[in-house]
């Protein structure tokens, strides 16, 4: 088995097999690609440590970040889910054993388990001598389209949402772009600044990502305007959303509306327009609303998937003793409370 670590992600591009594995051609979600991790390091101030284990039977790639023996997932608030990239029978246990030379504690969050990622990693690290704590940390809301047209899907939505769309759709004009447009993106940023959303983590990261997705034909950038037949010029957009589409899945990345336009429900009207587009034009089989169990996501989505955090420590490393002691005391307290 061969194990390599890359702190400079440009090195990966010169490794033909690895670059191909982490390319657009092989990965059907942005979070699994080298370009995504490069964006996090370039625009979000994250340091990278790409751990790669290869054997005759498979490959395991674990994108990490951190220093001083404390490592975490190379991901942030933009990442819907984090997982190792694997082929064949990946040497995860061998990678876990070798990581003990570089880290005393490793925390991975946002792991799915519908593909076995969380369970496989937990098993590999336990077998390699790590103590592993697994907790549910988030929720991923999704919609399986199952061949439905938009109107058929809409008939099953909550009555309040259907009533809102019936009353507001004629009052809001929507426009969906399938390429990157600088002026439209400036409108998105202006809307976001006047929305209820918290301060954006990295405008530069999101813009670079949207531009790259537009060039690849995967971007769905939508704007909503209030309808005013008496206006001589178009009014400023009051809502904007950024989705991407690939591999049969539509990913809902960003959405925002101006508080001044809230009465028109432009966000709901725009979501409906994009839903119709990805179902009937793009023909997706799955729509992914990312993480967070917000009530408005439940109105649109029908299924939820858990996301997990794995906290893994080397029990004999002195730097972990204070952490382990704290966990032990808390466990005793919880047991006493239950008693």
Automatic annotation (TrEMBL):
This is BioF2-like acetyltransferase domain-containing protein. It comes from the Bacteria. Residues 160-298 form the BioF2-like acetyltransferase domain. InterPro entries: Acyl_CoA_acyltransferase, BioF2-like_GNAT_dom. Gene3D superfamilies: 3.40.630.30. It holds the Pfam family Acetyltransf_6.
